[in-house]
Amino acid sequence: MSRQRHHWKQRWFMQPFRVLLEHPVYWALNRRNVTRAFALGVFLAFVPLPGSFLLAAILALILRLNVPAAVAGTLVNNPLTMVPLFFSAYWVGTQLLGVPERAVEFHMTWEWLRTGLLPIWKPFLLGCLVMGVLSALAGYAILGGLWHVTLVMKYHRRKSGGLDKSGRTPGKEA
């Protein structure tokens, strides 16, 4: 884990936070810290701004959460999922506001952002907020549930003699 921490601290975008990253809470692998950080990252994946991974890292530092888990949560929104996620958010927003959907022709230009986003910004941002909150809650619950199940399985294997206290099978060398 310390090698990974050293690797992250050397990244150019993490240099201003190098002193903060010395604290072990930002790398702690406990269910509470990791699940909250992941949920934060998933929520930020629905914020329609570039650089959500950087925002996730900064907020994880402020909230004293696991930095890699927060950054990993933002990967829900990636080049393959961005268009379906944001069109779904727009659809959710139109349904909640009761407004008709408009045909949206997206172009990755500043001109489109100034003019094309104007008629749809309310349902789009509302949909992003709702989907971000619901996805963060789902990510928190799913990751927490998986974490719990693996702990229970380890406990039962150890109790039945399958694992020693370190989580390894007795008699097998690493």
In short:
By secondary structure, this protein is mainly α.
Write a structural description:
The chain has one domain. It has seven helices and no strands. The chain has helices spanning 2-9, 31-45, 52-63, 67-73, 82-97, 110-115, 121-159. α2 (31-45) runs parallel beside α4. The longest helix has 39 residues, at 121-159. The radius of gyration is 21 Å and the shape is globular.
Structural class designation: mainly alpha
Number of helices, where a helix is a run of at least 4 consecutive DSSP H or I residues: 7
Domain count, please report it: 1
Uncertain segments: none
Give the DSSP E fraction (strand runs of 2 or more residues). under 5%
Q: What is the general shape?
A: globular
Q: How would a textbook summarize the main sheet?
A: none
Radius of gyration: 21 Å
- Helicity range of the residues? 55-70%
Order of helical and strand elements: HHHHHHH
First and last CA, distance: 17 Å
Number of strands: 0
- Counting copies of identical and different chains, the oligomeric state is single chain
Secondary-structure blueprint of this entry?
Blueprint: H1 2-9, H2 31-45, H3 52-63, H4 67-73, H5 82-97, H6 110-115, H7 121-159
Helix pairs in contact: 2-3, 2-4, 2-7, 3-4, 5-7
